[in-house]
């Protein structure tokens, strides 16, 4: 609905919380309008058990804010960065999306033909396998966004809508789901796919890239250090809640335009919440000549191991993505 309506909508939300919802019974079930991790709001998580209005009244901090100004400031300062693809999606939604009829058919090519297509048609290569499989071996230059429904969001953030896409899928996955997920954000230009999986590419004798990962225990032992860069790519609100000692912060979608801030002579160790986003970042960095590696489990594993969380000296608004430790 646009930035110009932000304040009025925030005021309306405050009035809904303070007035409309107070008239409703506590056993009323609350159904989330967005999935976990959605950029449509701050801290959207999967509900635990039956999500009722009574539970929201008990555990939702916004419910206890009785001052409108404080409520609005807290609400707006916690919002995640606006995805780059939203303005494009707004135009598509207003004009109406392209009518596809059925899920588009993608040409499945053997390694030799797939290789030729990559070289001749300025393809974006999208590897849909999970982090550990990608680290074990992938086609050079590939972007890794794992086979998951959040492919819609991160594909929208990271892929160029004006360039054709080639995909490598996991052995156990199908082609229809990722095409559907990408089409939700207007990415309907998937042209070719590797017939089979990465094993077919390797067995054809073609070159591939691989890299070592680092456990959170390795990170604990080796950082802080000036020999490597530790990079946090989570959302700003996650960074503000705590980060690994010695980490530098760049929000994942900003990496392509901020790589000059990283020292290419040093290995870059990347973490996120659980490793999914870190693998996206690592794939982008490696495609641009960095020695980058992921931390499996990432922040979840760090906290589960009982390691210390550092807090930024001056937590800022979610739109401020330039902070470092």
The main β sheet shows up as: 5 strands, parallel
State the helical fraction: 25-40%
* Alpha plus pi helix count: 14
What is the CATH architecture descriptor of the largest domain?
A: 3-Layer(aba) Sandwich
Q: Identify the CATH class of the largest domain.
A: Alpha Beta
Order of helices and strands: HHHHEHEHEHEHEHHEHEHEHEH
User: What is the typical, i.e. mean, pLDDT?
Assistant: 88
- Calculate Rg over CA atoms: 22 Å
How does the overall form come out from the CA principal axes?
Answer: globular
Uncertain ranges: 315-325
> Which sequence of strands runs across the widest sheet?
1-5-4-2-3
In whole angstroms, how far apart are the ends?
A: 35 Å
CATH topology of the largest domain: Oxidized Rhodanese, domain 1
CATH homology superfamily of the largest domain: Rhodanese-like domain
- Strand-pairing-aware structural class: alpha/beta
Query: How many extended strands?
Result: 9
Supply the number of structural domains: 3
Protein name: Metallo-beta-lactamase/rhodanese-like domain-containing protein
Domain Rhodanese: 119-210, 224-311
InterPro entries: GlpE_sulfurtransferase (IPR050229), Rhodanese-like_dom (IPR001763), Rhodanese-like_dom_sf (IPR036873), RibonucZ/Hydroxyglut_hydro (IPR036866)
Organism: Rhodopirellula maiorica SM1
